From TrEMBL:
SUPFAM superfamilies: Pectin lyase-like
Domain of life: Bacteria
InterPro entries per UniProt: Pectin_lyas_fold (IPR012334), Pectin_lyase_fold/virulence (IPR011050)
UniProt-recorded name of the protein: Uncharacterized protein
Length: 347
């Protein structure tokens, strides 16, 4: 005898201004808290969130985050009366996830991380802002080893969006004004798995060590589509994107402009990492020393295919400035660049 069960997916409603019974079963009875919906959600459920600003906690716990469960979709951009996803307007109905949990604008009191994505979780239609994750230990290492990364509690690592040992999808989001030591806008560490970012704007994110907007570690695969990186900054490597320890990034139809770093103002590869850029533009980025547009550095020469590489197809590099070294493209050792129908208008 065989018993077949059908798992019914649900829509859970959230509206911070709702005044009903707080059941999440309709707009009229919507939850006022996203956390309430996340606690109830199961695989294949959708959570519809009306415009407004939402915080990971009502208290002062900086370690509290929005954790989106596996295969759950969190959708923002609703006015609060829609009957179909197609009726939402995420550009007009701003739905904000903010780490300013005390509503005081003091960065040191902001949430360390705002969103964690479990495998195949989706976040779509939000502005994600005001994470602050700076570790105060004076003796910490700026360059973590794979073992330390695997066992990390993410102190100093990641800010707005984190894929840690799991990977989800980020669509139609603005990720802005976040601060961390590494990957202030997004941090991805999930060996062999793929994180996807589509139509995402990374604006004014700042890291002290690696990846002002995004940092990718330990064999993680990242796909960036139709996105923009603007005015992100890192004090060391990777003003916009930094890849390390055999990470791979595919970048399509994406623009990088006015990003800054000491080295690798736009994209940096270390540790045998690979990047492919297709139909993308790198313009007006500034490095204090090396590689305002592209940078490839250290790798393990004793490992087969251990060098870094970048492939650029139908792309443009223009007006990128390296103040000390002068060249916008830097390579070290056996690292490789491949250019196909790509216009390089700077040094």
């Amino acid at each position: 005898m065989f018993i077949f069960t059908h798992i019914q997916a649900s829509v859970i409603f959230v509206n911070s201004l709702a005044a009903g019974k707080n059941t999440g079963q309709s707009w009229q009875e919507a939850y006022t808290s996203i956390q309430s919906a996340l606690e109830l959600a199961k695989a294949n459920d959708q959570i519809w969130v009306a415009e407004g600003t939402y915080y990971p906690t009502k208290g002062n716990n900086r370690d509290k985050s929005f954790i989106i469960p596996e295969k759950v979709t969190l959708l923002g951009g609703f006015k609060g009366d829609e009957k179909s996803i197609n009726q939402r307007d995420f550009e007009k109905n701003k739905t904000i996830l903010s780490g300013d949990i005390l509503h005081n604008g003091i960065k040191e009191t902001f949430s360390k991380h705002i969103v964690f994505l479990k495998d195949d979780a989706v976040i779509d239609g939000f502005t994600i802002e005001n994470a602050y994750n700076i570790e105060t230990l004076a003796n910490k290492s700026n360059h973590l080893t794979p073992t330390l990364i695997q066992n990390s509690n993410l102190e100093g690592t990641g800010g707005a969006v984190v894929n840690f040992k799991s990977t989800g999808i980020v669509n139609n989001c603005i990720i802005q004004n976040n601060t961390a030591e590494k990957g202030a806008g997004a941090y991805n560490m999930a060996s062999g798995k793929t994180a996807i970012f589509n139509n995402v704007q990374f604006l004014r994110n700042y890291s002290t060590v690696r990846g002002g907007a995004m940092s990718n570690d330990l064999g993680t695969n990242v796909i960036l589509l139709n996105s923009k990186f603007e005015k992100n900054k890192c004090d060391d490597k990777g003003g916009a994107v930094y890849n390390d320890f055999f990470s791979n990034t595919l970048i399509i139809n994406t623009t990088f402009t006015k990003n800054e770093a000491e080295n690798a103002a736009t994209i940096g590869n270390d540790g045998g990492s690979k990047a492919i850029l297709l139909n993308s533009d790198i313009t007006d980025n500034t490095a204090q020393i090396l590689g305002s547009a592209l940078y490839q550095g250290s790798y393990n020469a004793n490992i087969k295919d251990g060098s870094n590489s970048m492939v650029l197809i139908n792309s443009t590099l223009s007006n990128n400035i390296s103040l000390t070294n002068g060249t916008s493209i830097f390579t070290w050792g056996d690292d490789k660049y491949y250019f196909y129908n790509t216009n390089v208008k700077d040094g």
